[in-house]
Amino acid sequence: MTMTVERVPCAENVALVDLVDRLIDGGVVVTGDVVLSLAGVDLVYLGLRLVLAPAQEVAPGLSSGRSSR
Amino acid sequence: MSAEHEPSLRDDASAVVHAYGVVLGGEPVPLPVTGIAGAGVALLDAGSVAAVFSRLPGCSYGESAWREHAEDPRWLAEVAVQHQRVLDEIVEDSDVLPLRLPAMFRDEEHLHRVLAGRAALLEAALVATHDHVEWGVQLLAAEQPAAPPQEERPSSGREFFEQRARRSSALARARSRRDALVREAYAALADVSRQSVLNNPQDPALSGRSETMLLNSAHLVGRRHRDFFMTTVEEVAERLRPAGISVEVSGPWPPYNFVALGTEELVGDDDG
Fold first, then answer.
1. How many CB pairs under 8 A join A and B?
2. Measured in whole angstroms, how far is the alpha carbon of residue B253 from the centre of its chain?
3. Quick one: B138 and B247 in the same domain?
4. Option in A30, A33, A47 nearest B73 (CB)
5. Least CA distance to A17: which residue of chain B?
6. From CA A55, how far away is CA B209, in angstroms rounded?
7. Each residue of B175-222: pLDDT tens digit?
8. What is the tally of structural domains in chain B?
9. Domain membership flag for residue B243
10. Do residues B149 and B56 both lie within one domain?
11. CA distance linking residue B189 with residue A45, whole number of Å
12. Helix (H, G, I), strand (E, B) or coil at B169
């Protein structure tokens, strides 16, 4: 996966961080059945953590020196 | 629904069902008009509880789509934000248990079966948080506690070490004063909440903020105590301002932090 993320969909990164915080640690799970394997669900959780990773490139936005590629 | 109904999600040409949250059954709940990808939003009643759901194209939101995008932050963020937008609207007026992602089901019948099998637990969680919403509170410090100004240039090694000890103990005192302020703030907020939880402060590298997060808490607050809670937040902010600490509130959230229903209770392997 490339980390060339220009923009996360939510206009406010801060709110997105708060949401991902909650989706990773809170809420109700009723989907743990055969539809998506547990391994698949785990990947989604990993992916949700990655949602936050672009924020450091998107939010301050100005320090291009920090972007890793 | 497609004419040839295929029970497996592997047939991604058909529709899948995405559930946003669970509400009490048999009661009218105002719903947003559209959900993920502009799909309509509806209620599926399963007795004592009901799910808020959308039918989504299987090719875009089915099992293989989730698998394919599991490590795609843009796709996940988009789904998460749209999922939350639906919950945001519902929680304004109604109690709703937020579902974690991926909240995907083969079809209405599958969702109904899953709900019905867990109805008692879900109903208990709804009753436990009835008429309450979650508010998030974050305390942010723009700067670290300042070290005292430099003293005269030390004239001996011994003086150098004494100065250094004085500086570090002054810094430690400043830190512990700040910690005490944060503890008092949390206690004041917890006092006007039904329940409170402390979460780990967000990493500034992840949130993209320059401030240091001193507190990241969530509070379960009665709907009718909203103004009271906000007044307390104002008071706390007033007290913390001279110390260079700002307060941010988010909400109302559905009670993400107060539904202790983990995988153990609610995951079944009998839904195949």
1. 169
2. 7
3. yes
4. A47
5. B207
6. 9
7. 899 999 999 999 999 999 999 999 999 887 777 778 899 999 999 999
8. 2
9. yes
10. no
11. 30
12. helix
